Amino acid sequence: MPFRNRYTGLIDRYRDRLPVSDDTRIISLGEGNTPLIRLHNIPKLLGKQVDIYVKYEGLNPTGSFKDRGMTMAVTKAVEEGSKAIICASTGNTSAAAAAYAARAGITAFVLIPDGKIAMGKLAQAMMYGAITLQIKGNFDDGMRLVKEVAGEAPVTIVNSVNPYRLQGQKTAAFEIIEELGRAPDYHCLPVGNAGNITAHWIGYCEYSSASGEHVTEACAYCNGKCAYAGGAIVGNRPKMVGYQAAGSAPFLRGHMVDHPETIATAIRIGHPQSWDRAWNVMEESGGWFAEVTDAEILAAQKMLTQYEGVFCEPASAASLAGAIKDIQSGKIPEGSSLVLTLTGNGLKDPDTAIAQCQGKATLLTIDATLDQVKRAILDNMR
Ligand SMILES: *Cc1c(COP(=O)(O)O)cnc(C)c1O
């Protein structure tokens, strides 16, 4: 007898809404089904009546939401007979590609910016056995090279220009609606390449149209690939709010940025691939883009760990940093419900975390004596 109630990943869970057939061999590591954690302490600190939930995507198998897209992209690549995948990455896509390729028994080639990815992500790509090409350039250079080489070598691109990536990633919106019973008023997330904000919108649109809400216009986000391409709906959908790091904010500048800089390396992208689609998402959802500084990002990251016990990587904290500003300014009014995507796990980037805490009172070096331990306890009770 097979075990019946095992969770076997998001493709199996949402099979009827994804482009797979009964014969498709699914390449899964049990991704998806991540916790939606209600914040208890931060709204109080802000002194505002807001209902904030964080979708902790850092608990996916390789520690970021990229697994949602990668299970779909690698499943389809294998189905189509591909023996190798390739991607450019700021780190998390390479970790996910490497893991799912290992699972499938195919080769992963990953292009990463030399010296500009977090240590955990580099460890993952190497450990999972991807052929890791560190390029003397940034993510945007890598992306250009990947697109060029895919025309000339037998490799499938698994960046979010691969439409199956967004199909997998849209399931995060399904999970949120199912857990809350409806869409939140606002969905806030960090924006780099802008694939994830697009994928969430596809998910919210499909879910509302499947539940029979009023259909008004053609779905502009999936190039006719989604199951509900005939019409998108207005109704049970959030306003989508995308936050960018100030040094890496093409959507705020209104044009591509050639030398993006931010400590949040996962969103250090100046030439987003989903430019048009992300603008459409903003307009149609009634949302907006805003920017946050590196200092605000780090402060939000620390706030989440110290007041809520949730450790995300710097890029992920951009969603909280931005939401705090918009709540304090009143742009997000009291009485609202918000979901913030925490895109990746804090353990991905130990260097940034340790640097933030160095020299702080929480790291003490003492003699190995009872007296000193006791004093440390009594001096440091909250
Ligand atoms: C990829 C990534 C992002 C950006 O997502 P896009 O789809 O490129 O906008 C944000 N945070 C983390 C941790 C990521 O890995």
Describe it for me?
This protein has helices at residues 10-13, 42-46, 66-79, 92-104, 119-127, 139-150, 163-169, 171-180, 195-210, 250-253, 275-285, 294-308, 314-328, 350-357, 370-379, and strands spanning 36-38, 51-56, 84-88, 107-113, 131-135, 156-157, 186-190, 215-217, 232-233, 239-245, 288-292, 337-342. With 382 residues, it is α/β, with parallel strands linked by helices. The strands form 3 sheets. The protein has a 6-stranded mixed beta sheet, sandwiched between helices. The protein has a 4-stranded parallel beta sheet with strand order 5-4-3-6. It has a two-stranded antiparallel sheet with strand order 8-9. The longest helix has 16 residues, at 195-210. The radius of gyration is 21 Å and the shape is globular. The termini are far apart. The model is unreliable at 214-234 (pLDDT under 50). The structure holds pyridoxal-5'-phosphate. Residues 64, 66, 92, 160, 190-196, 266-267, 313, 315-316, 343-344 line the site of pyridoxal-5'-phosphate (PLP).
Summarize the structure.
This protein is an alpha/beta fold and 382 residues long.
List keywords for this structure.
382 residues, alpha/beta, six-stranded mixed sheet, 12 strands, 15% strand, binds pyridoxal-5'-phosphate
Q: Identify the overall geometry.
A: globular
**Largest β-sheet summary:** 6 strands, mixed
Helix-residue proportion = 40-55%
The largest sheet has its strands arranged as 1-2-12-7-10-11
Low-confidence stretches: 214-234
The number of distinct β-strands equals 12
Bound small-molecule species: pyridoxal-5'-phosphate
Number of helices: 15
Distance between the termini: 52 Å
Structural class by SSE content: alpha/beta
SS strand fraction? 5-15%
What is the mean predicted local confidence, pLDDT?
A: 92
User: Secondary-structure element sequence?
Assistant: HEHEHEHEHEHEHHEHEEEHHEHHEHH
Computed Rg: 21 Å
